[in-house]
Amino acid sequence: MPELPEVETSRRGIEPHLVGNVIQYAVVRNSRLRWPVAEEIMKLSDQLVLSIQRRAKYLLVELAKGWIIVHLGMSGSLRILPEERPAEKHDHVDLVMADGKVLRYTDPRRFGAWLWSDDLERCSVLAHLGPEPLSDDFHGSYLYARSSKKKTLIKPWLMDNKLVVGVGNIYANEALFTAHIQPDRPAHTLTEREANLLAETIKKVLQRSIEQGGTTLRDFLQSDGKPGYFAQELFVYGRAGEPCRICGEKIESIKLGQRSTFFCRHCQY
């Protein structure tokens, strides 16, 4: 599933092509995604794009009359293409722009979403989300305070969007490794020093991935069709049985919260 850096990379990729441009109309070839494509999107006509923002893994397209909310789901991707490019089997939604380009949404598994909101503050899918990990609202003191008395294991706890948004499986694994923290410890065992280090590490890992274009996943492409490059720097994710890049011990893999978890028992404690 595309995680926060992949979504942010998509946002940055499409922003210069959409902001200040006019959506002439939408083409919806298959409205049956995770939820039905909003009728307001299907009826769009001559709408100026004011901004492209991101909240958690949702892309927010600001128009004068409301917001298009896009979630890439398990396998969704966005590309900027010439309008005459023929649509293929899994190309479900186009936003046709006034300059002759289209924003094309491709999603083989159809688990993404195209929603509409007149008021983001009352939007149900955005309610109850925790702070953005790269914002000033997310820091070690916040993490330490929230960990108090929490018996949840650290890695599943970090992946709870009510705690902090966008720390998905790949980046939770990588951040915990870099911070030298065992993923299957209860959250309440975090010391204040560890919480400060973990918050700082999460920010660095995510920012580095964004700068390099996101993590290369089987289903992920940037808006220009190029894959991301951060996968070349992964320390533990997907490397079970391989030697640790730091100490040489074998990377181990276990299931936590039904998600594959990778760690080095020697470097993390």
TrEMBL record:
Cofactor: binding comment: Binds 1 zinc ion per subunit.
Cofactor requirements of the protein: Zn(2+)
Any idea where the FPG-type domain is? 235-269
Q: Which InterPro entries match?
A: DNA_glyclase_Znf_dom_DNA_BS, FPG_cat, FPG_Glyclase, FPG_N, H2TH_FPG, Ribosomal_uS13-like_H2TH, Znf_DNA_glyclase/AP_lyase, Znf_FPG/IleRS
Q: What is its EC number?
A: 3.2.2.23, 4.2.99.18
GO biological process annotations for this chain's record? base-excision repair
Kindly identify the residues recorded as the active site.
Answer: 2-3, 57, 259
Q: Name one Pfam family in it.
A: H2TH
Question: What's the catalysed reaction?
Answer: Hydrolysis of DNA containing ring-opened 7-methylguanine residues, releasing 2,6-diamino-4-hydroxy-5-(N-methyl)formamidopyrimidine; 2'-deoxyribonucleotide-(2'-deoxyribose 5'-phosphate)-2'-deoxyribonucleotide-DNA = a 3'-end 2'-deoxyribonucleotide-(2,3-dehydro-2,3-deoxyribose 5'-phosphate)-DNA + a 5'-end 5'-phospho-2'-deoxyribonucleoside-DNA + H(+)
Molecular function, one GO term: class I DNA-(apurinic or apyrimidinic site) endonuclease activity
Where does this protein hold DNA? Answer: 90, 109, 150
Asked if the record carries the keyword DNA repair, the reply is: yes
Query: Gene3D superfamilies from the xrefs?
Result: 1.10.8.50, MutM-like, N-terminal
PROSITE patterns named among the record's database cross-references: FPG_CAT, ZF_FPG_1, ZF_FPG_2
- Which residue range or ranges hold the Formamidopyrimidine-DNA glycosylase catalytic domain? 2-112
Q: Of which family is this protein a member? A: Belongs to the FPG family.
Q: How does it assemble?
A: Monomer.
This molecule's function is given as: Involved in base excision repair of DNA damaged by oxidation or by mutagenic agents. Acts as DNA glycosylase that recognizes and removes damaged bases. Has a preference for oxidized purines, such as 7,8-dihydro-8-oxoguanine (8-oxoG). Has AP (apurinic/apyrimidinic) lyase activity and introduces nicks in the DNA strand. Cleaves the DNA backbone by beta-delta elimination to generate a single-strand break at the site of the removed base with both 3'- and 5'-phosphates.
Protein name in UniProt: Formamidopyrimidine-DNA glycosylase
List the source organism: Photorhabdus luminescens
Query: Which gene name does the record give?
Result: mutM
